[in-house]
Amino acid sequence: VLGEYSGYFLLGYMLDKKQEKLNKIKTSVLLLILVIVIAMSASITSIYSIWVGKPTDLLYDYRMIPACLEAIIIFMIFLRIREREWNVKVQKMITNVSKYTLFVYLSHVFVMQHLKINFDITSLSFHPIISVPVLSIIIFVICMVGAYIIDKIPGVRRILM
């Protein structure tokens, strides 16, 4: 499963290296494009679901162009955020969360699969407008708790964190 996401690692690295050129695109334009991509994905997937007569996740897969565009745009927006723009408490929180994000990135797929296999919970279990954000938060929290626990285990921490 992890090998399937290696393209996103490389893409993030490339975007970071090209940050100076990419910063010429205004944040408001990026946000507008993000909203358009999300709206188009939702609309097309809804129409397709109605056409086939059952819920589908046609354009929500990480291998699809809309999901890739969303990831690129969100990453570009986060690259623009500078630590000096935040107060000390927010900086500390961002630093603490950021040290666990690689673990979250690597483990979220396993949590999603566990929820699907053991509890039959997917983004199609409820209306996607509700289930996608709620599941995203739940999965993020589960992965962060797992990362925190692993961070407290001295021998394991050096291997996984």
Commentary on this structure:
By secondary structure, this protein is mainly alpha-helical. The chain is 73% helix and 0% strand. The protein contains eight helices and no strands. It has helices at 6-17, 19-22, 27-52, 65-79, 88-98, 101-119, 128-151, 154-160. Helix 6 (101-119) packs across helix 7 (128-151). The radius of gyration is 18 Å and the shape is globular. The mean pLDDT is 85.
SSE topology:
Blueprint lengths: L5 H12 L1 H4 L4 H26 L12 H15 L8 H11 L2 H19 L8 H24 L2 H7 L1
Distance between the termini: 19 Å
Radius of gyration from the alpha-carbon trace, in angstroms: 18 Å
Helix count, DSSP H or I runs of 4 or more residues: 8
Given as residue ranges, the uncertain stretches (5+ residues, pLDDT < 50) are none
Class by SSE composition = mainly alpha
DSSP helix fraction: over 70%
Shape designation:
globular
The fraction of residues assigned to DSSP E strands is under 5%
User: What is the H-and-E element order?
Assistant: HHHHHHHH
Oligomer category: single chain
Compute the average pLDDT: 85
Q: How would you characterize the largest beta sheet?
A: none
Number-wise, the strands total 0
